[in-house]
Amino acid sequence: MAVQDLPELSPSEMRRFGRHLVLPEFGLERQRRLKAGSVLLVGAGGLGSPTALYLAAAGVGRIGLVDPDVVEETNLQRQIAHGHSTLGRQKTESAAQRMRDLNPDVVVERHDVFLTVENALEIIAGYDVVVDGTDNFPTRYLVNDACAKLGKPNVFGGVLRFDGQVSVFDASRGPCYRCVFPEPPPSELAPNCAEAGVLGVLPGVIGALQATEAIKLLSGLGEPLIGRLLVYDGLDLSFQTVDLMKASGCPCCSGRPEDIVLRETRMVCSAPTVGGSLSADELQTRLDAGEPILLLDVRNPPEWAGGTIPGALQLSKPDIDQAVQAVLHEGAAREGTSLAAIPRDRDVVVYCQSGMRSSAVIRELVAAGYEASRLLNLDRGFSAWVGRNT
Amino acid sequence: MATVYLPSSLRRYVDQRSTIAVPGETVSAVLTNLAATAQGLHCHLFAADKLRSFVFVSKNGQDIRLLNGLETPVESGDQIRILSSIAGG
Ligand SMILES: [Zn+2]
């Protein structure tokens, strides 16, 4: 945008952004570029919280938030845009409230939806820069492909345990996410933060770096992190950058952008098969009839402490992941692992909180030799059971 | 000996160390030697002897595909970094 077309700053904006304006490298013009600019944050959770707050505070004119979830207590260990006062509210609404408190002039656009193959292009097309702060591989690949197709820079950030990664994927100027990681890992090798844990401050570190890159891209300041991956190690407290290559055979960006077709990425276990499923009502009926079902609760100890279905065997998904890995890839005997507690000659009803982790566990168990017909996923998990019994 | 750096998710195979010295004249030999010392690590790195598509390896700060891939020569003191894709947010 030509300088004369950039929006003017109001007197209150001049005061609020004074610390930017005194930076000779930044100055009034770049501040006006931020005001003219727009950023889409995909995910308003661990990474999205600090980016949303810092980008609003910095004076970005318009910020879109994509997140279908509501604020839960377990979020508050790291998702600092939310709070106890907004428990149960939409995350986009909760974050928007804090953002407007920091900068009353910011325009916040809420998208309370999952980003999907159907809606991704339409939503992303409306913004200058995309910040990927999602919590799952399928959405990351979707964000990457849609950005490459639309020619939008994608400020990528990922966290797990104590490790973080940041890059700017701009397929028109450098590699994309698929150039570096062509496919997601199989689910038994890819725990998410709920399963593997995350140090609460880690998304703060990585999200703040993503916000830095978004501000640089919008204002034209400095050198964007294109073609480089920044690797953060919270245990060693080290930052390293590695040079990335644009892959000539990249399944996303090696052809013409207009030919990129968005596809749903499915997380698969090494042997994809699924068992059946049953509802909380059906489970109650079968338990009432005295059927010898084994209930398998694959949530984590803190979740077990909050209540469980009486008589359930408690084996967390990370424990099962490790046992399945040992059986599949390390030649361990099933009986020598925690899988020994899961019988093969009875129906096993597997449940987690929502039904997602348990369906992944079922795929893994099938890969480890269990009969798919004996494994049943409890639809919508413990949440549905609690809903039925309250 | 090259110095191999592992992400925290793989350190349980090497007594929770972040770096480990491994012999080998190529990246492929270094990774194979590393996998041989730690049962379970092999499946994280290789599928049918090819580097898995979610594992990224760099030598001295460069994607090994910018060099000569798994056949990239390794000299004493080189830094080999293994990264896994992570999706948490
Ligand atoms: Zn690419």
What can you tell me about this protein's structure?
The complex is a heterodimer of chains A (390) and B (89). Chain A has 390 residues and is an alpha/beta fold. Chain A has two domains: 37-259, NAD(P)-binding Rossmann-like Domain (Rossmann fold); 276-386, Oxidized Rhodanese, domain 1, CATH 3.40.250.10. Chain A contains 15 helices and 13 strands. In chain A, the strands form two sheets. Chain A has an eight-stranded mixed beta sheet with strand order 3-2-1-4-5-6-7-8, with helices on both faces. Chain A has a five-stranded parallel beta sheet with strand order 9-13-12-10-11. In chain A, helix 14 (356-367) links the parallel strand 12 and strand 13 (375-378). In chain A, helix 4 (48-58) packs parallel to helix 5, helix 4 (48-58) packs parallel to helix 10 and helix 13 packs parallel to helix 14. The longest helix of chain A is centred in the middle third of the chain and has 18 residues, at 202-219. The mean pLDDT of chain A is 93. Chain B is α+β, with helices and mostly antiparallel strands and 89 residues long. Chain B has a single domain (2-84), classed as Ubiquitin-like (UB roll) (Roll), CATH 3.10.20. Chain B is built from two helices and seven strands; from the N terminus they run ββααβββββ. In chain B, strands 2-1-7-5-6 form a five-stranded mixed beta sheet, covered by helices on one side. The longest helix of chain B has 11 residues, at 27-37. Chain B is globular and about 35 Å long. The mean pLDDT of chain B is 92. At the A-B interface, strand 5, strand 6, strand 7, strand 8 and helix 13 of A face helix 2, strand 6 and strand 7 of B. Zinc ion binds next to helix 8 of chain A.
